[in-house]
Each structure stands twice: as structure tokens, then as C-alpha cells.
Recover the amino acids of this structure.
């Protein structure tokens, strides 16, 4: 006989079922996965006990791809088919990539140069989203083996300065890897969580995050468990790799001629440069050699070569402080994140600027993943929800192109998310019935200096004299930092909406196609998988509603309660043998009939929070 | 949600707001409605959380900024701040603004102008402080037409302050 479940007294959650959730740091150079194991969050190792998964994928003909350290050998042996630092490719066009990095050892499908960069490998053409998905899959598999069960949810970290296209593509990669993403979390915020939870600190924290390919500075205020991002800045194309390029350039300038094929030379140069950079974090000078050439590089010389890169990072710190209207003296702690902050040149420059030694006690390679793991555990519901809260901002201004190629900013940078903002526009010509919108992201005044995110049209505007129509354009940024835009003509109610997809990315259709392709040989698998996904979603919904009712049943009139019960029963029945479409339809229905209940619960929550607030104030007076 | 921004945070409807109390109330409310609290909830609850949380953010950013707060207070008292009447602005004020702007434009474009910018900034800040007090007095007496005139003056002054600051940024090469 089944045991009866008894609810914990006073608890808001009906039952404490432990769910498996992980935090993933999808890095340029290395990736990690972390999860809560018996109270504390730990990085999950592979079977050899290694924590870092090199973000390298080697594609092979007729065999599954190698991911991680198994792929590393391919960097020299098989440079064309071994893809590394692929995070730098996300959300960019091929043209952009080539201007940033002349050491790219890959063959590109030039016909796709203005869309997403497509790399030609022996296993077919690969897209940055597919490569990222392969890395995510490997990490998910590691986690499932460690935790002995399928994952219920993941938190994936992204640089705070990632733009909308880069965020969309990260989400697409997770989707392609079959992961349920609870939240995209900004890396610096994750690092702050990792450092900030044990101590009941209050104050201002700067997170200086220099990774392999990206650079972020975030300024957070921590008050009573609420992390509020005050300002953020950075450069998605600046990282440890650039320090390698500087050394590679220095070596190349001293070489007389190149003998071998260029790909191999470039790859070898980069390896020598990278090794020298690492050595310089320990020694005062390093000996480099290539064929019959050899020379030594001192720390001092290296500092000179990289002066521009380092001062770029310090300038960003100044900018961020100014955006938050704070000065160096207001900063209580500086946290160093990312392997590249091991370089003494970087640490010294940061300490000098802030006049304070930065915190380095958590391994800079692991700190982001640990923070993501903590957040995943909270979001999935394993931890009490009131333990902490992250309030993040959008890193770049979002706007619309107006007459004369100017940008009208709708949501300025450093606005706390989620956010909804609207602005009214009007027609330019008499009788104009169509209006086209160009959504851009960036800080500059001119459209050409900003990143194009999407274009869409509003049709069916009733003909009027120029300037008479009122078109309301609304921007919404959700908690993941993803944008959607809607336009509406106010007198007629004509609507157009667009979920912004990166111009340099894949549209939804392309993602569907890739999903399809990855299950090409097993059509039945595909349906089995989508049934499984639908079932998980349905069970989550049923348990969420059961939870809500156990707490707030008093808010449910009998007829409404009955409608919800019927919808739950139907959905539960469908879980036994229905197809994914039918399950989805019933999920929709349950969402619909429980909508009013959810709204009343939310109102009550706010009222309760306010009451608590008033009591606090009375006490303190 | 029908509550206005002040009611939302349970604060008095005045422009002299206790910013610390505002921040505490904001964090308290956001801790309840933020989408992170609904990561595993139903779609309709998720949607509501995004809406409520956005509304809160909008309310907080409006009340936190002195100028936006002033404007919002007028709108709450049925004053149309979008329309500027010719009579609202005195010739004196306009001339003074033009002079200050010319001064700003004529400053050298390099770091040598920083000291002048700093002193100009102090002047403007002082003036702002005084006029904000006047605005507060007017709204306190419920003299909203007078407050509207001061509000437009505040708009000018804040715009000027922003321009001085961006002038500083350019010269400091941010």
C-alpha cells in the first residue's frame, strides 16, 4: 500500500523532492559543470578526476566527434577539423571574425559569409551553435553519470556583455543539446554569488572577468541577500587569446620565411605563444623556439607588448564606475574571474587602479560554474526561495532606427531587467500603410555603428495624413536578457510582433532543421523524445498547480477549482499513452483555466510583502 | 495593477522621497515577484512574474530619479507635462540657458577644459538643488501649475548637467 504524503507544517512548498539541476560554465577555453552534492555545490569531474573540459571539438569522418581533452591532440594533427575557442564565433558574421583574428585555422563555407560562420569539416559543415551544443552534451552526460539520473534543469552562464544574438545562440545550443534551460546567468553575477553567499556581506563588489575570449566588468551592490547589478561593461572580443596573438605576432615578425602550410604554422605559433604566456605567470622570462629560431621574452617586455590590451580593461573599469556614479573608494571588494586574471600584468594593473588587492581565493577557473550551480539549485526549488536574489541589467542599449539612420534608444544600457518600455512613432508620408522597423543594439548614435538585431514590418495601417498615425513600439527584455519587440497602430489596433532573432544567426526554422538532422536516423526516437519532453513539462505544471493549491486553496472558487481539477485529470490521463501534440494541447488548456488563480496569487503575494514591509518600518521607528 | 508607483512601495506621494526606504521596499517586493521565483511554475505564472517584475523595475527607476519622480508626481495630479506652453518659460530663463550652452560649446576640446567644466557643473548642481526645493514647496501647497513651470526649468538644468558630464567623458577619453 502506498504511504500517505504529509505536508511539512508551515512550509510553502508542498513536498521537498530533490531535483537534479546543474550550472554550466560554457567557456571559450574550458567548460565546467557544477551541481549541489549533499549541501555544497561542487564541480563535477570526469572519470579521470579532471574538472576542466577543454572547449574543443574534433570532427571525424563516419565517427562520433571527440570533445574535450581527447580532441586536444587534433589542434596540431588535424587543425582543420578541430574547433576551439568557438564561443568567440557566436553571434558574429564571418567577415567580422576574420578582421578580429587572422590565425583562424579553418576552412569556411564562403557562401554563408554574411550569415552565421559555417566551418567545413570532414563531418560536414558545422555551425558555432552545433559545436557549442556538442560541448554542452558532453557536460550533461558527465553530470548525468555523476548524479545518477536525468537532469531536470540547467543554468548556463554567459558574459554579461553578450549581446542579444550571442544570448539567443547560447540558448539555441542548449536547446539543440536537449537541455531545459532555467536561466541564462551572467558570468560576473555567478562569480559574485559564489563569493558572496557564505558571508553576510554588504557593500559594492567589482567583478573583473577576463576569460579566454571575453572580458566583462560588473559592479554589484549586495544588500541582505539581494545582488543588484549597478553597471556592467566589457568587450566580447577581448581575452587571453589576444595575449597569445600578441606573442605570436612578435614571433612571426622575427621568422624569416614560412615553410609549411599556413594552417599548421599558425596553429603551432599559437601553441608556442600560449605556452610562453603561461610560463610568464611563474617565471620572469621564458625561452621560445620555432624551427631553427629561438629568443627569450621577459615579463617586462611582455607587459610592454600587451600594454594596450591591459589598459583597455582598466578603461572599462573606469567606465563602469562612472555609469554607477561611484568612485574607486566606494568599492569594497574586487573579485578576479577567468584564467587570464592569473597573469601578473593583469593583477598588478587592477590592484593599482583600485588601490586594493583583488580577491583570488576561489579558483578563477571554477568560480563561475560554482555560482551557476548554486543558482540552479535555487531555481529548481531545492533551496528555500528567499535565500538570495539576483537583479541583473541589460548590458547594451536597445533602440529603433529612425529617419536619417539615427538610433532612438528605447531601453538604455544598465536598465534592470526584466523590463518593458514603449515609445510612440508616426508615419512619414500621407496615406502610408506600411511601416518597417529596424531593431538595433549599441551605444552609438548612428545605425551603421550599432549591431542590427532584426527587421520587421507593420502592415495594414489605416491611410491617414503624415504624422497622424500613432504606432506604439514596445520592447520587452526578459530575465535571461532576451528581447522581443511588438508594434501596434493605436487607432485600428493593427499588430505586428517579432521575437528578435539574430541577423547573424539562425532562424527558428534552421534550429528545427538541425534538431531534425541530429535525429535523422531515428524518426521514432524523435517522437519518443518529444513525448518525454512534453511529459516532463506536464508533470512540472501539475506539481506547480498542486503546490499552489495546497497553499492558497482559499483563493479558488468552487467552479474554478473544479475546472482545474478536470484539466489536471485529463492531462494526467494523457501522460499514459498520448502523443506529444495532445499533451501540449492539454498543457495549454490547464494553463488557461488556472490563469486567473495565478493572477490572484500574485496579487496576494504583493499585498503580503507590503504588509511585512510596513511592520518592519514600524519596528525600526 | 491599479496602484500608482508611490502606493506600490507604500510611500507618501511627495517628491522629497526617502531613497533608502524606497530601495528597501523595492528589494522586498522584487524578492517576491521576480521571475527567478517562478522558474518551475506554470507558464501563466511565469508570464505574470515577468509583468509584475517589469512594472516594479519601472516604478523603482522612476521614483529613484529626482526629475522622473517630479514628472510622475505632476502626471498623477493630472498635469500634462508633454505640452510646454510658451508662457511657461520666461525669456530670462531661455537667455540664461543659451548663454550657458554657448559657454559649454566654446570650451577647448581637450583636458584643459576640465576645471571649467567642473565649476560649471557645481553651478548647475547648486541651481538644481534650489529649484528642486522650490518644486517641492509648490507641490506641497498643491500649486501644480506653478510646479509645472519649475519642472520644465528642471528639465533644462538636468539636460545641461548631462551635457556637461558627457563633455567630461569625451575629454577624459572614456
Amino acid at each position: 500500500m502506498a504511504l500517505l504524503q504529509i505536508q511539512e507544517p508551515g512550509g510553502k512548498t508542498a513536498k521537498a523532492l530533490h531535483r537534479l539541476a546543474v550550472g554550466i560554465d560554457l567557456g571559450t577555453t574550458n567548460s565546467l559543470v557544477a551541481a549541489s552534492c549533499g549541501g555544497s555545490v561542487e564541480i563535477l569531474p570526469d572519470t579521470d578526476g579532471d574538472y576542466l573540459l577543454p572547449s574543443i571539438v574534433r570532427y571525424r569522418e563516419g565517427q562520433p566527434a571527440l570533445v574535450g581533452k581527447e580532441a586536444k591532440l587534433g589542434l596540431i594533427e588535424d587543425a582543420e577539423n578541430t574547433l576551439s575557442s568557438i564561443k568567440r564565433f557566436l553571434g558574429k558574421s564571418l567577415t567580422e571574425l576574420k578582421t578580429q583574428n587572422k590565425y583562424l585555422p579553418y576552412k569556411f563555407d564562403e557562401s554563408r559569409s554574411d550569415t552565421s560562420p559555417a566551418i567545413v569539416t570532414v563531418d560536414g559543415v558545422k555551425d558555432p551553435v552545433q559545436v557549442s551544443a556538442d560541448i554542452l552534451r558532453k557536460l550533461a552526460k558527465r553530470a548525468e553519470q555523476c548524479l545518477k539520473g536525468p537532469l531536470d534543469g540547467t543554468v548556463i552562464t554567459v558574459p554579461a556583455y553578450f549581446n542579444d544574438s550571442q544570448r539567443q545562440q547560447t540558448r539555441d545550443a542548449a536547446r539543440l543539446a536537449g537541455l531545459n534551460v532555467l536561466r541564462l546567468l551572467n558570468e560576473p553575477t555567478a562569480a559574485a554569488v559564489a563569493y558572496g553567499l557564505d558571508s553576510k556581506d554588504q557593500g559594492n563588489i567589482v567583478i573583473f572577468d577576463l576569460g579566454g575570449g571575453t572580458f566583462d566588468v560588473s559592479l554589484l551592490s549586495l544588500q541582505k541577500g539581494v545582488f543588484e547589478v549597478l553597471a556592467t561593461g566589457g568587450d566580447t572580443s577581448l581575452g587571453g587569446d589576444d595575449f597569445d596573438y600578441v606573442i605570436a605576432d612578435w614571433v612571426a615578425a622575427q621568422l624569416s620565411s614560412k615553410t609549411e602550410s599556413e594552417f599548421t604554422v599558425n596553429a603551432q605559433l599559437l601553441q608556442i605563444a600560449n605556452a610562453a604566456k603561461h610560463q610568464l605567470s611563474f617565471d620572469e622570462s621564458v625561452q621560445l623556439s620555432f624551427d631553427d629560431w629561438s629568443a627569450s621574452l621577459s615579463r617586462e617586455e611582455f607587459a610592454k607588448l600587451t600594454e594596450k590590451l591591459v589598459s583597455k580593461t582598466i578603461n572599462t573599469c573606469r567606465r563602469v564606475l562612472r555609469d554607477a556614479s561611484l568612485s574607486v573608494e566606494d568599492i569594497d571588494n574586487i573579485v578576479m574571474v577567468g584564467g587570464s586574471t592569473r597573469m601578473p600584468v593583469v593583477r598588478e594593473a587592477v590592484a593599482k587602479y583600485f588601490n586594493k588587492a583583488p580577491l583570488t581565493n576561489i579558483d578563477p577557473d571554477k568560480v563561475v560554474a560554482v555560482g551557476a550551480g548554486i543558482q540552479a539549485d535555487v531555481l529548481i526549488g531545492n533551496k528555500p526561495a528567499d535565500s538570495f536574489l539576483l537583479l541583473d541589467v541589460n548590458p547594451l542599449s536597445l533602440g529603433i532606427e529612425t529617419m536619417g539612420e539615427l538610433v532612438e534608444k528605447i531601453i538604455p544600457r544598465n536598465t534592470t531587467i526584466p523590463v518593458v518600455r514603449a515609445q510612440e512613432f508616426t508615419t512619414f508620408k500621407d496615406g502610408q500603410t506600411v511601416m518597417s522597423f529596424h531593431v538595433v543594439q549599441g551605444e552609438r548614435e548612428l545605425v551603421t555603428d550599432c549591431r542590427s538585431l532584426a527587421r520587421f514590418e507593420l502592415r495594414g495601417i489605416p491611410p491617414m495624413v503624415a504624422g497622424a498615425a500613432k504606432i506604439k513600439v514596445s520592447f520587452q527584455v526578459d530575465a535571461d536578457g532576451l528581447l522581443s519587440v511588438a508594434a501596434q497602430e493605436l487607432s485600428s489596433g493593427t499588430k505586428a510582433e517579432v521575437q528578435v532573432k539574430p541577423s547573424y544567426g539562425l532562424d527558428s526554422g534552421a534550429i528545427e532543421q538541425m534538431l531534425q538532422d541530429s535525429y535523422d536516423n531515428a524518426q521514432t526516437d524523435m517522437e519518443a523524445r518529444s513525448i518525454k519532453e512534453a511529459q516532463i513539462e506536464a508533470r512540472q505544471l501539475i506539481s506547480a498547480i498542486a503546490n499552489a493549491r495546497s497553499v492558497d486553496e482559499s483563493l479558488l472558487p468552487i467552479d474554478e477549482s473544479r475546472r482545474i481539477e478536470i484539466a489536471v485529470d485529463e492531462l494526467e490521463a494523457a501522460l499514459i499513452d498520448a502523443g506529444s501534440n495532445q499533451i501540449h494541447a492539454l498543457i495549454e488548456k490547464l494553463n488557461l483555466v488556472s490563469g486567473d488563480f495565478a493572477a490572484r496569487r500574485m496579487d496576494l503575494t504583493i499585498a503580503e510583502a507590503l504588509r511585512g514591509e510596513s511592520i518592519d518600518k514600524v519596528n525600526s521607528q | 495593477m491599479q496602484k500608482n508607483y508611490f502606493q506600490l512601495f507604500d510611500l507618501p506621494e511627495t517628491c522629497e522621497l526617502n531613497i533608502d526606504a524606497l530601495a528597501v521596499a523595492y528589494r522586498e517586493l522584487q524578492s517576491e515577484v521576480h521571475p527567478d521565483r517562478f522558474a518551475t511554475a506554470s507558464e501563466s505564472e511565469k508570464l505574470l512574474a515577468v509583468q509584475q517584475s517589469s512594472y516594479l523595475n519601472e516604478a523603482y527607476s522612476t521614483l529613484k530619479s529626482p526629475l522622473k519622480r517630479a514628472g510622475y508626481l505632476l502626471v498623477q495630479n493630472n498635469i500634462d507635462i508633454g505640452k510646454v506652453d510658451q508662457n511657461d518659460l520666461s525669456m530670462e530663463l531661455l537667455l540664461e540657458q543659451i548663454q550657458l550652452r554657448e559657454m559649454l560649446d566654446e570650451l577647448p576640446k581637450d583636458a584643459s577644459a576640465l576645471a571649467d567644466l567642473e565649476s560649471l557643473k557645481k553651478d548647475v548642481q547648486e541651481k538644481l538643488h534650489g529649484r528642486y526645493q522650490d518644486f517641492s514647496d509648490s507641490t506641497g501647497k498643491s500649486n501644480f501649475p506653478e510646479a509645472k513651470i519649475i519642472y520644465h526649468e528642471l528639465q533644462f538644468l538636468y539636460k545641461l548637467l548631462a551635457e556637461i558630464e558627457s563633455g567630461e567623458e569625451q575629454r577624459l577619453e572614456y
